[in-house]
Write a structure and sequence with these properties.
Length: about 425
């Protein structure tokens, strides 16, 4: 892997051009050039996304689906155009299968509340895994409390992989739903999502895949994956905050009741009765995040332009480079050593508190996350309260990793 380009199936990632697209990367923090390795929490936006949102506000903003005037029509066209871009991006069959929400968290809450409250009864079971983000635990826990259903948890191995034998054994007569992540945000593990779906469907159980850490980094085709639901957030895929996507298979979404009531999600309202709008509006109550959706559409265009194959190849090069250098440091212990990993490295430095390590790295311009990463059960599994986490995007470089490792070598004697 060279600093300038990478070739993958004939496509090249021109790293200098890519970095020029991200204004935020070109700054100093505490007198050092910024190295942004907190992409799993939220990634950065290219000028193309920023400009699209700015142009929308400068020229086209009005409410959508409500006005016959020109600006409302322009806004509606751009908003629905973004839905089509997202549909094509994940290869959903129809635009009505794409529901715009605030983010992955809201998407999971929507499914848990709408599908869960309608379909779960006392004694029913919902399977999740030990490596889920709180967003894919707590909504299920809440709906289980409300309905009398129970959570069953797929254990994980010391390497941070799902125990697939245990997963198979968890299915029983009362299993009603499965919700599992495609990539662990805390460990970087890429789970065998297609296999998880196949096994769930063998038992005639619907499955939701949390694609938050997958969709921005690797090709995801919902028809090939076969999942009933897929969720992801715009802000992790170089789009705005406050926008995310729930993909749901049409037959499921048709059968599900609305979650929130209000404008736009209705067909006819009287004081006696209300009937619902068609999909996807049934699930989009109130004025949506119009600029967010349009910005997400621009992010989809941007990612398509670079190519997810090239992005994945570049990021796996970064992961391999960083892992090799961190493994060479005796004080560093990496958590999450799965065979298939996304570009996320969680680690500890001796007995040092992760916050101390991250604070000292920040003083050298390097942004990493510390804490439990909203995945406390993962921390409990490994008997630790927190880790330092470096997570990469396609605009990061091997040179930045070298600077990170050099900085860490200076930090180690200060904390160990
Ligand atoms: N993980 C992280 O630093 P929202 O907040 O709704 O955009 O995404 C929630 C979410 C759901 N699933 C996974 C796998 C995630 O990683 C996240 C967000 C961030 O790891 C913020 S806690």
């Amino acid at each position: 892997m060279t600093q300038a380009t990478i070739d993958h199936q004939g496509r090249a990632l021109d790293i200098e051009r890519v970095r020029d697209d991200f204004p935020v990367l070109h700054q100093e923090v505490h007198g050092a050039p910024l190295v942004f390795f907190d992409n799993a929490a939220s990634s950065q936006r290219p000028s193309q996304v920023i400009e699209t949102v700015r142009r929308y506000y400068e020229r086209d903003h009005a409410n959508v689906h409500r006005g016959i005037h020109t600006l409302s029509q322009r806004a509606t066209e751009a908003y629905e155009g973004a839905r089509e871009k997202v549909r094509a991006f994940i290869n959903a069959r129809a635009e009505k299968e794409i529901v715009f929400v605030r983010g992955a968290t809201e998407a999971i809450n929507l499914v848990a509340n709408s599908w869960g409250r309608r379909n779960l009864s006392p004694g029913d079971e919902v399977i999740i895994s030990h490596m889920e983000h709180h967003s894919n635990i707590v909504p299920w826990q809440m709906v289980c409390q409300a309905t009398g259903a129970k959570l069953r948890v797929i254990p994980i191995t010391d390497a941070g992989e799902l125990d697939m034998q245990a997963y198979r054994r968890l299915f029983g007569k009362r299993t009603r739903f499965v919700a599992v992540t495609a990539v662990s945000n805390a460990l970087g593990t890429v789970t065998p999502a297609k296999e998880l779906v196949r096994i769930a469907h063998d038992h005639r159980v619907p499955i939701l895949i949390d694609g938050c850490q997958a969709v921005p980094h690797m090709p995801v085709d919902v028809q090939d994956l076969g999942a009933d639901f897929l969720v992801f957030s715009g802000h992790k895929m170089f789009g705005p905050t406050g926008i995310g996507v729930l993909y749901g298979r049409e037959d499921h979404l048709e059968a599900m009741p609305p979650w929130q009531g209000g404008g736009e999600m209705i067909d006819r309202v009287t004081f006696e009765e209300t009937t619902w709008a068609d999909l996807p509006n049934k699930f989009e109550a109130g004025t949506p995040n119009i600029a967010g959706a349009i910005g997400l559409g621009a992010a989809v265009d941007y990612v398509n332009d670079i190519g997810l194959d090239a992005i994945q190849a570049w990021e796996s090069g970064l992961l391999e480079h960083a892992t090799r250098h961190l493994e060479a440091l005796p004080e560093v212990r990496i958590l999450g050593t799965a065979e298939h990993k996304a570009a996320v490295i969680s680690f500890l430095v001796g007995d040092a508190h992760p916050t101390d390590v991250a604070t000292l790295l920040d003083m050298k311009g390097i942004a990493v996350r510390t804490g439990h990463h909203c995945a406390q059960p993962v921390m409990q599994r490994f008997g630790i309260p927190a880790t330092v986490r470096a997570s990469f995007a396609f605009y990061n470089t091997p040179d930045e990793i070298d600077r990170f490792v050099a900085a860490l070598k200076k930090v180690i004697p200060m904390v160990c």
